[in-house]
């Protein structure tokens, strides 16, 4: 393997290498020094995924998709700390989408194999389907526990249904999608700045969304793998409820699942 | 209160490496150096000193080392450190070794199995030791079923011993669940206790189980152990032995 020497790099590459070392280190250190306790709490929340991974060992879909669900969160944190907020949001959308796929594929092994083979057969089966579970989020709304959970939530807290303030997962997904599609107000660059730059406003916005995504992932997993959460050790289950789900929803989860 | 990493270093230097060296000498006598013992080690991301210890003792080399950790971020850190050929896990070992479709199984058998459960953030409630011991028997069974031409292996089991209840009927039932042709006995405990909370008694039970399993799985083992106080009422107990098939 050849030795890395900056002075041997060609012109453009040397330029971007030298500049990215500066802004990457600066943004990373600034973000960590200003927000270390928030990021630490977030990492602990992301780490709850290990509890689910442990319980879903026999699921083929979980084996394939859990590493990606974790790495999306891991990458999102890195991008945010480097000042790449748009790409941090893209990772969050991917993480949420992959979790919804995990839920669907865990009950649909044939469709899972089609998807692994790269066949978008869902587009033939469901017209207007953007994803494997069919149009909109109707599939999830029909699942008994999710239905029951949403019925116990006040309007503004419903995950898939609800009116004003509700449809939280749908709305969050929509917001994160703005980063994928470079929607106005969701750019990485700024009129006064091209290089990634630490921004307290952007960090806080990303952090809040990241917390939401982790919360909803834990809720969705609890509602759709209810046998598994009931079979967890009390320590693992309490970690999921207290850290993964949190105060806003954990009592509704307990009521829904009769924990 | 001794630091858990300092406790681990004591275990490595005073017990693990010594048993591993002796095991290498007895099980792979043809090679005086570079024994290339295929190693599985449950380890953590801040102290994995057993790996360089085994490598510098010429008992193994990096291409033959498999590290295990149950948590994502620690797994990532171990991967980054690059001390092992492969990092496995993100699940609890004692749950995975019983999982018939898991990735872990394809890597068996090993020449050295270091099951340091104390490095895997042991949970505090009742039932933990029972699951670990269940995992030990699953490991012993797998090692035997897939032994190839191996004469035996080094087994190290390290765990946190505290005052939580150890449920002997559960241990008995767990052992029954591993059926072996020709074996119809149950494991026995002195005095037939139901629940044990005394730390020393628990260590005796673990030793006794390993010895009784030697009859079930057809091996000889000489056990050595080391116990180090972590804090009041909690100790780290490490039991090591060279398993030789009959």
Explain this structure to me?
The complex is a heterodimer of chains A (259) and B (246). Helix content of chain A is 69%, strand content 0%. Chain A contains 13 helices and no strands. Chain A is mainly α. Chain B has 246 residues and is of the alpha/beta class. In chain B, strands 3-2-1-4-5-9-8 form a seven-stranded mixed sheet, sandwiched between helices. The model of chain B has no long low-confidence stretch (mean pLDDT 92). Classes of the chains: A mainly alpha (259), B alpha/beta (246). The A-B interface holds A 43, 46-47, 49-50, 53-54, 57-58, 60, 63, 66-67, 70, 74, 233-236 and B 70-73, 76, 90-92, 95-96, 99, 101-103, 123-125, 127.
How would you summarize what this structure contains?
The complex is a heterodimer of chains A (259) and B (246). With 259 residues, chain A is mainly α. Chain A contains 13 helices and no strands.
Q: Can you lay out the helices and strands and say which pair or pack?
A:
The complex is a heterodimer of chains A (259) and B (246).
Chain A: H1 11-47, H2 49-55, H3 60-82, H4 85-107, H5 109-116, H6 122-125, H7 138-142, H8 144-152, H9 168-180, H10 200-224, H11 226-231, H12 234-245, H13 250-257
Chain B: H1 4-27, E1 39-42, H2 50-56, E2 65-69, H3 72-81, E3 86-89, H4 93-96, E4 112-116, H5 128-145, E5 152-161, E6 166-167, H6 168-176, E7 195-196, H7 199-217, E8 219-231, E9 234-245
Parallel strand pairs in B: 1-2, 1-4, 2-3, 4-5
Antiparallel strand pairs in B: 5-9, 6-7, 8-9
Helix pairs in contact in B: 5-6
